[in-house]
Amino acid sequence: MYSSPPALEKLVQEFSKLPSIGRKTARRLAFYLVSGDKKKMGDLAEALTEAQNRIVHCSCCYGFSESEICQICENPRRSREILCVVERASDILPFENSGIHKGLYFVLGGVLSPLDGIKPETLRIPILIERIEREGVKELILALGSSPEAESTALYIDRVLANSPVRRTKLARGIPVGSDLEFIDDVTMLRAFEERVGI
Q: What CATH number does domain 6-54 carry, 3.40.50.10300, 2.40.50.140, 1.10.8.420, 1.10.357.10?
C-alpha cells in the first residue's frame, strides 16, 4: 500500500489543523504546493516565518500589530470615548473595512463557554473593566456575535458594569445566529452597528 512521504504527510497534518480545512482540502493544498513551482512554497514559508517573527498583539487593544501599539490605537483622530469589544482580533477587520466605527477596540479573547473551560477569569474581562475606568469610556459596544455564548458573555459584562455610568450597547438584530462577524456583508454590518441597542 502506498503511503505519502513523511514530509508531505506532515504538511497535510499541519494544514488540517487550520479552521475549516478538512483532511481532503489539506491534502489538496499540500499536493498543490509540492507539485508546483518551488518558489511558491518558499514564498509561503517566508511569509509564515515573517508573520511568526513580526506579528504581536497590541498592548492596548490586543488586536494584531507589528509594534507594541497598533495603528488604530495610535491614531489621535479615533474617539477615545467609544470602545467596541470583539471576540477575536480578526473581528476588527469587518468594522474597519466598512468604516462604520470611529472609536477604539478591545479584543476579549473569546466568549464564555463553561463546558469548554472558558470562564470569566480566562478572558480579558478584568483588563476591559480597568480600561473603561482608566480611560473614561462613555459607550461600550459589545460586538461579540450572535451565538448563545456571545449573548451570555454580553450579559455577564453588563452585570459586572451594573454600577458604572458607561452606556452599554450591542449590535442590532440582523446578524444571523451563530455566524462569525468576519463573514457578515457590509450592509448587514452597517445596519446592525447603526441600529445598536442597549443591553
A: 1.10.8.420
Q: Looking up cell 479573547, which residue turns up? A: 109
DSSP H stretches of helix in 75-162: 92-98, 125-135, 148-160
CA dist., res. 27 & res. 125, Å (int): 39
DSSP 88: S
Q: What is the mean pLDDT of each run of 10 residues along the chain (199 residues)?
A: 80 90 91 86 92 95 96 95 95 88 95 87 93 94 87 92 92 56 58 61
d(CA 20, CA 74): 33
The span from the CA of 104 to the CA of 116, in Å, is 29
- Cell numbers at 20, concatenated: 475549516
